[in-house]
Write a structure and sequence with these properties.
By secondary structure, the protein is mainly beta. The protein is built from six helices and 40 strands. It has three domains: about 150 residues, no CATH class; about 180 residues, YVTN repeat-like/Quinoprotein amine dehydrogenase (Methylamine Dehydrogenase, Chain H), CATH 2.130.10.10; about 120 residues, Cupredoxins -  blue copper proteins (Immunoglobulin-like). It binds sulfanyl-(tricuprio-$l^{4}-sulfanyl)copper, dinuclear copper ion and calcium ion. It is found in: Periplasm.
C-alpha cells in the first residue's frame, strides 16, 4: 500500500476541514481551541510531557489547549455516557465535561419521577419488574452513517434487555425484554441507516433457559438479537455456541461484528482462558434475513432463532450466515473504522489489536485470510477509537495508558510489530472504553477523546471507600503536539462507554407537544377537572400551574384506589411542577404541557399535603392541596 499519510500534510488538511465545519456550529459560540493549541505549541509550552517522541526521539511539549466553556457559553458536543449498574444514562457537555442531565433507563429515579407514574411504572413492570439494570453501550441512531439525533439505544447487561430513549424529550420510551438473553452486553445498530438495533448476548445459558441442561454447558449458547428501531420490536435472534461480548457494525448494511472470549464454552475462568485463540464473529445480516424469510429457524420464547453455530447446515454453503475469525485469546472490544474498511478487535489478554479487512470477508474462503494486520500495542488492550485521520487509539487496561497507532502502517507492518505505535499517554487509572467525537460514524471529528477510567485513586478528594470513576478528556486534534490531557471528571459508578455527538445534530423539545402524549391534556376549564367514583375506585383529573393544583382538597375513603391525572399547563420552558404525596410513594414530574397519571391506594386515614417538589416560583411552598382520607366505617 502506498504511504501517503505524512503527519504534517494530514494535520494541515484537517485544520482546514475543521474550519470549514464552523458554520455547522452557527448557533453555538465556539471557542477557538485550535488556535490556542497551535500558538502555545509554537511557543514551546512547558505543559506536561505527553510521551510523544519526535524523529530524534526527544519528548515533545504538549499544546496548551483551552477547553474551558465560560458561564453562559454552550458546549460543542453532547456526550451520552452509560451509568453502568446505576442503570441510567448521563448527558455531558464536551469539552466542558459538565454533567447536564441524567436519563433514568432501568432504574427508578425520583428527581424525574421515573418509575412512579403509571406509564413508566408499567414499562418497567412489563419488562421484568426489576428496579435496576447495567447499562454499558449507549448508541445514537444514524442515517447514512451520520448521527441523526433521533434515538439512543442502550443495553441492560443485568437482565437481558434493550431500551430506547427518545432524544426529542431525553426520556426512555420503550424497553424490550430479550427472552433468549441472560445478559445483553454489546449494543449497536446496523449501519448505515440503523435498520436493526442489535443486542449482543454475553452469558451462555440453555436456550430456552427453562430448567433443561442445567449442568451441561456444552448445550448452552448465546444469541445476537435484532430489533427494529421504530416501532421498537424484537424481530429475530441468531444462535451461536460461543459467548458474545462487544459489537459494532460495518458501514454497508452487511456485516455485524462481535467478539467472543469463550470459544471454549467453559464455565470457569480457567476453562474460558484455556484456548490460544477465540473469535471475532462476523454476522452476514442479509443472509440471516434470507433464512428468516425462508422460515429456516426455530421459534424459542416466541422469537425466530436462526442457527448460526459453526456446525449449522446454514453455514455449510459458499455464503455462510456467520463467519468465525480466529483472534488471540480472550479479546474484548471490536470497532469499525470511520471509513468502514476495517474491524479492529482489541486483544485484552493478548497485547495486540487484530485488523480485519471487511471487504475481504466476501472474497476469502477461510475467514482468517481477512486478517490483514496485527499490531503490538501494550498490555491489556480493551477498546479502540478513531480520529478520522488514520489513527487508532486503544486503551491499555493493565498499563494504564492510551496508545495511539497508525492503522495503515499496521496493515503494512509485520504481524505483531510495535512499529505502528506513535505515542503512549498515561491515564488515571485502568481505562475501559475510550470514545472519540463521532468516531462510531463516518464523520469522526478528530478533536476530543474521552477515556473512561475504572479507578480514580488519588485524583479527587477522598469520599470514603467507594471511589468515583475518572472520565478524562483529551485533545487529539494536533498530531504534532500529541495527545493532551485536558481534564479529570469524577463520575458516579460506573460509565462503560459513550457516544459523542455534535450538538447541532440534536433538536430537543423544551416543552411537551401534547399530541406526543397518550393522555389527554387537562385544561383549567371546569369540564376538564373532575373527581369521579366507581365503587372503591376514584378517578381525578386536574390541571396544575403556578401556584396551585386544580383542587384545593380531594376527599376519598380509606382503602380507595385513587388515580390522579394531571397536566402542567405552563407554556414557559423550564417551569416544572410535580405531584408529590407524602407517605404514599407518589412522586410525578410534570414538565410544561406534560400530562401524567398515577395510581395509589389511600390505605391510612388522615390528612396528606399533596405538594410540588420542583421549586417553581416564590410561592412554590404554597403550591399544595389536601388529600383527606376518611376512615372506613
Ligand atoms: Cu469494555 Cu461492557 Cu464495552 Cu465495560 S465493556 S469497559
Ligand atoms: Cu410547582 Cu413548585
Ligand atoms: Ca477464551
Amino acid at each position: 500500500m502506498t504511504d501517503t499519510h505524512s503527519t504534517t500534510d494530514r494535520s494541515t488538511t484537517e485544520t482546514d476541514a475543521a474550519d470549514d465545519r464552523d458554520p455547522l456550529f452557527a448557533r453555538i459560540p465556539r471557542r477557538d481551541f485550535m488556535k490556542a493549541g497551535a500558538a502555545a505549541g509554537a511557543m514551546g509550552s512547558l505543559a506536561g510531557c505527553t510521551g510523544l517522541l519526535d524523529s530524534d526521539g526527544d519528548q515533545q511539549a504538549a499544546a496548551d489547549v483551552d477547553a474551558s466553556v465560560p458561564p453562559g457559553e454552550l458546549d460543542d458536543y453532547y456526550a451520552f455516557l452509560s451509568g453502568g449498574h446505576s442503570g441510567d444514562i448521563r448527558v455531558y457537555g464536551v469539552p466542558s465535561m459538565r454533567q447536564i442531565m441524567r436519563i433514568p433507563v432501568f432504574n427508578v429515579e425520583s428527581a424525574r419521577g421515573y418509575g412512579f407514574d403509571d406509564e413508566t411504572h408499567e414499562m418497567l413492570q412489563n419488562s421484568g419488574g426489576y428496579t435496576w439494570g447495567d447499562t454499558h453501550h449507549p448508541r445514537v441512531s444514524q442515517t447514512d452513517n451520520e448521527y441523526d439525533g433521533e434515538w439512543l439505544f442502550v443495553n441492560d447487561k443485568a437482565n437481558g434487555r434493550m431500551a430506547r430513549i427518545d432524544l426529542k424529550y431525553f426520556e426512555t420510551d420503550a424497553i424490550i425484554d430479550l427472552p433468549n438473553h441472560q445478559g445483553t452486553h454489546g449494543a449497536c445498530m446496523l449501519m448505515p441507516d440503523s435498520r436493526y438495533v442489535f443486542g449482543v448476548g454475553e452469558l451462555r445459558v440453555p436456550i430456552p433457559n427453562d430448567g433443561r441442561d442445567l449442568d451441561d454447558p456444552s448445550e448452552y449458547g448465546s444469541t445476537l438479537s435484532a430489533m427494529s428501531p421504530d416501532p421498537f420490536d424484537h424481530e429475530w435472534d441468531v444462535r451461536v455456541d460461543c459467548n458474545l461480548d462487544n459489537g459494532d457494525s460495518g458501514k454497508e448494511g452487511e456485516w455485524f461484528f462481535t467478539t467472543s472470549y469463550n470459544s471454549e464454552e467453559g464455565v470457569t475462568e480457567s476453562e474460558m482462558t484455556a484456548a490460544d485463540t477465540d473469535y471475532v464473529v462476523a454476522f452476514n445480516i442479509p443472509r440471516i434475513e434470507d433464512a428468516v424469510e425462508a422460515g429456516e429457524y426455530d421459534e424459542v420464547n416466541g422469537v425466530p432463532v436462526v442457527d448460526g453455530t459453526e456446525d449449522s447446515p446454514l453455514n455449510d454453503d459458499g455464503e455462510p450466515l456467520v463467519r468465525y475469525i480466529d483472534v488471540p485469546t480472550n479479546p474484548h472490544g471490536v470497532s469499525v473504522t470511520p471509513d468502514g474498511q476495517y474491524a479492529i478487535a482489541s486483544g485484552k489478554l493478548d497485547p495486540t489489536c487484530t485488523i480485519i479487512e471487511i471487504d475481504q470477508l466476501n472474497e476469502v474462503d477461510d475467514p482468517n485470510d481477512a486478517v490483514v494486520g496485527r499490531v503490538n500495542v501494550g498490555n491489556g488492550p480493551l477498546h479502540t477509537a478513531y480520529d478520522g485521520r488514520g489513527h487508532a487509539y486503544t486503551t491499555l487496561f493493565v498499563d494504564s495508558q492510551v496508545v495511539k497507532w497508525d492503522i495503515e502502517a499496521a496493515v503494512d507492518a509485520e504481524m505483531g510489530s510495535e512499529d505502528p505505535v506513535i505515542e503512549k499517554h498515561d491515564v488515571h487509572y485502568s481505562p475501559g472504553h475510550l470514545i472519540a467525537a463521532e468516531s462510531y460514524t463516518s464523520e469522526a471529528q478528530g478533536d476530543w477523546l474521552i477515556v473512561l477510567n475504572k479507578l480514580s485513586k488519588d485524583r479527587f478528594l477522598p469520599v470514603g471507600p467507594v471511589f468515583p470513576e475518572n472520565d478524562q478528556l483529551f485533545y487529539i486534534g494536533d498530531d504534532d503536539a500529541g495527545m493532551e490531557l485536558v481534564k479529570d471528571t469524577p463520575a458516579y459508578p460506573e460509565p462503560h462507554d459513550a457516544s459523542i455527538v455534535r450538538a447541532d445534530r440534536l433538536d430537543p423539545a423544551s416543552v411537551y407537544d401534547p399530541d406526543d402524549l397518550e393522555l389527554d391534556f387537562i385544561s383549567p376549564a371546569d369540564e376538564d377537572n373532575f373527581i369521579e367514583r366507581d365503587g372503591d375506585q376514584v378517578h381525578i383529573e386536574m390541571y396544575n400551574q403556578r401556584n396551585h393544583f386544580g383542587f384545593e382538597d380531594i376527599t376519598v375513603q380509606e382503602g380507595d384506589e385513587v388515580t390522579i391525572r394531571s397536566t402542567n399547563i405552563e407554556q414557559e420552558e423550564d417551569i416544572l411542577h410535580s405531584l408529590a404525596i407524602p407517605e404514599h410513594d407518589v412522586n410525578v414530574k410534570l414538565a410544561p404541557q406534560e400530562t401524567r397519571e398515577v395510581t395509589f391506594t389511600a390505605d391510612e386515614p388522615g390528612v396528606y399535603w399533596m405538594y410540588c417538589a420542583y421549586f417553581c416560583s416564590a410561592l412554590h411552598l404554597e403550591m399544595r392541596s389536601r388529600l383527606l382520607v376518611e376512615p372506613a366505617d
